[in-house]
Automatic annotation (TrEMBL):
Molecular-function GO terms, alphabetical: FAD binding; oxidoreductase activity, acting on paired donors, with incorporation or reduction of molecular oxygen, NAD(P)H as one donor, and incorporation of one atom of oxygen
Domain FAD-binding: 23-388
PANTHER family membership: FAD-BINDING DOMAIN-CONTAINING PROTEIN, TRK SYSTEM POTASSIUM UPTAKE PROTEIN
Family: Belongs to the PheA/TfdB FAD monooxygenase family.
Domain of life: Eukaryota
Protein name, UniProt field: FAD-binding domain-containing protein
Pfam family, one: Phe_hydrox_dim
Length: 632
């Protein structure tokens, strides 16, 4: 990669490129990963430019499955309602097999997500990728932001002048005209053949490939196959395998294996036209009949092809960042087979992880070093995905039902999204010294329900507080009045003027950027949770099992009184109780306070239980955590 010499100014750019723009973040690629990132930055008021080589959003095909954690994330963002109404929901899966002496028959059927996977929506939602993109596009447009299309990224260089305000110099073509944008940060979400990744010095995709050839059909089917509306893995002893997935609008997606049998090695894209793929599908499904009333989308892919990723490859980029200024996410950083419904989900959570970190750094609330946690955390998740997917793809190719079922059961929490776990030994995730807690730093907050004190509404706690790039701090006291003195002392300690948390709160009120107001805020009322003139970086919440009638807002410590909408009464069923679930086997005794810090992306940062006389230790513990995360 060509880098600019120290002190080289924009004037040295060729004359036909003098119309240089500036932006805080340049996002390349307007698929789900890029749009997730851009939408979150736009919500935070961060100057953001997003470019894409396509002329419009995805209209058909491509990724289609949303896992439970992704649905939760979209709910937290307040944009899930439309697709929940339109998508097809998969609650179960079945295996079908034929053998030389036995015709095709069902060999297993089970719930897709068993109770051990603690999620609100125990299903996969099937909608095509363009519908997901539309959620983010609409969210951006109401805030005045749009994708610049017909724009093909070429390369970037870094200005080595340490004082450069916009050190990333990106070149691209817009409608075939050369353009230059200078940015503080560049993020490549431009797919498996990422031009941003290719511009990064020494960055390579590492891993292995499974040599397979598949046809993919989205369409409306007529068939006497009985499990059409379940997720099915259908394996013929000599004709290959089909993965059948119900879709929205009465459609079904079939992934049809073509590289099985004596002619498998000879199949090419020229041979594998739509009629050929349909014929192979009928052979695998025999003796059941199948006909297509309509086909909305057809494609083929094989090793090293262009659709839908590079191949049935399990590969990961050697670097997810360059100089803490350039990052890659989604398929640009990891590729795998499309049959486990993981790509779009993991990709969006790559950029969900990065968005809040960029926002805090650009607002000078967190140090730039926070961004180094992005490649650390997300490369770990990518490697976990690759390990799962390589076994998954191999089992498909070998028609090994036992291996498929075993791999699926072993990885079901990861597949759902709730099992994507970060290492709990970083500034952002510190291990608990209290054993037996239900919450584990580096894992997602367990879903729980309680009654909002202010209006007696039962709510899902993990969904109730709007996301505004803030840390959520929960204080749990099973008996509020027994724990009140300890809670008072902790709150007085962390709200003292010179503490890290107090200084960070004051600094957050002076942040360079703020969220633009939109009509939806009239219904969400974010100021109830991120209190103006108090803090833009913290939302405090109190949860107690004491009867509602025994508590008044005036009883709360001064720090907590403004947070009326996050005082929760934990007296619903035990199986949804935050006290029971979060304190786990250890439990919470009268007089104790459990303190939980939840990161802006919903992951538990730290969690501990404190007894009487431990307020000073609790304050030091909170201060120590935020000292490593916030810039004060």
């Amino acid at each position: 990669m060509k880098r600019l010499a120290p002190g080289m100014s924009p004037a040295r750019i060729p004359e036909h490129q003098t119309d240089t723009e500036t932006t805080d973040v340049l996002v390349v690629g307007a698929g789900p990963a890029g749009l997730m990132l851009a939408a979150q930055l736009v919500r935070a008021g961060i100057p953001t430019k997003i470019i894409d080589e396509r002329t419009d959003k995805t209209s058909t095909g491509r990724a289609d499955g949303l896992q439970p954690k992704t649905l939760e994330t979209l709910k937290q963002l307040g944009i899930a309602d439309g697709i929940l109404r339109k998508g097809a929901k998969i609650y179960d899966y079945s295996f079908w097999n034929s053998y030389p002496d036995t015709k095709l028959h069902r060999t297993n059927r089970d719930a897709h997500f068993p109770p051990v996977v603690d999620v609100l929506e125990p299903y996969i939602l099937l909608v095509h990728q363009g519908m997901i993109e539309e959620l983010f596009l609409a969210d951006m447009e109401i805030r005045g932001a749009y994708v610049q299309r017909s724009s093909t990224f070429d390369s970037y260089a870094l200005d080595e002048n340490p004082n450069a305000e916009y050190p990333v110099i990106a070149k691209y073509k817009h409608n075939r005209e050369d353009k230059v944008t200078r940015a503080k940060y560049l993020v490549g979400c431009d797919g498996a053949h990422s031009a941003v990744r290719r511009s990064m010095p020494g960055n390579e995709m590492q891993g292995e490939s499974v040599d397979v050839f598949w046809g993919v059909l989205d369409g409306v089917i007529e068939t006497d196959f009985p499990d059409l509306w379940s997720k099915c893995i259908i394996s013929s002893h000599d004709k290959g395998t089909i993965l059948s997935i119900p879709r929205e609008r009465n459609m079904t997606r079939l992934y049809i294996e073509l590289s099985t049998g004596s002619e498998g090695a000879k199949i090419s894209k020229a041979i594998a036209n739509q009629d050929f793929v349909m014929a192979r599908g009928r052979e695998i499904l025999a003796p059941f009949t199948v006909d297509w009333k309509s086909v909305e989308w057809f494609g083929c892919y094989q090793s090293n092809s262009d659709y839908p990723r590079s191949s049935d490859s399990a590969k990961i980029a050697s670097n997810f960042s360059h100089a803490n200024r350039v990052f890659i996410a989604g398929d640009a950083s990891h590729t795998h087979s499309p049959k486990a419904a993981q790509g779009m989900n993991v990709s969006m959570h790559d950029t969900f992880n990065l968005a809040w970190k960029l926002s805090l750094v650009l607002n000078s609330i967190s140090p730039a070093s926070l961004l180094a946690s992005y490649p650390t955390e997300r490369s770990k998740i990518a490697q976990d995905l690759i390990s799962f997917d390589y076994e998954h793809a191999n089992a498909f190719v070998k028609n090994d039902q036992a291996a498929l079922a075993e791999n699926f059961a072993k990885n079901i929490r990861f597949i759902s999204g709730v099992g994507a776990v970060y290492d709990a030994n970083t500034p952002l995730t510190t291990p608990s010294s209290t054993s037996g807690l239900g919450l584990i730093p580096g894992e997602l907050l367990l879903p729980a329900r309680a009654t909002r004190y202010v209006d007696t509404n039962p709510v899902d706690i993990q969904l109730d507080i709007p996301l505004r790039n803030q840390f959520k701090i929960y204080f749990l006291a099973s008996n509020y009045h027994s724990a009140l003195q300890l809670l008072l002392e902790i709150c007085e300690g962390i709200s003292a003027p010179n503490t890290v948390m107090s200084r960070a709160s004051k600094k957050s009120l002076l942040a360079s950027y703020s969220a633009p107001k939109v009509e939806a805020d009239e219904y969400i009322q974010p100021d109830r949770y991120v209190i103006p003139n108090l803090s833009r970086i913290f939302t405090f919440s109190t949860i107690t099992q004491s009867p509602q009638k025994d508590i008044e807002f005036t009883d709360l410590p001064t720090l907590l009184r403004p947070y009326k909408w996050t005082l929760y009464n934990d007296r619903l069923e035990e199986n949804v109780s935050p006290t029971k679930k979060w304190a786990g086997k250890r439990g919470l005794s009268d007089g104790e306070v459990m303190t939980v810090v939840v990161r802006p992306d919903g992951y538990v940062g730290v969690a501990e239980v404190w007894g009487q006389g431990m307020a000073e230790k609790a304050v030091g513990w909170l201060e120590g955590y935020f000292k490593g995360v916030l810039a004060v």
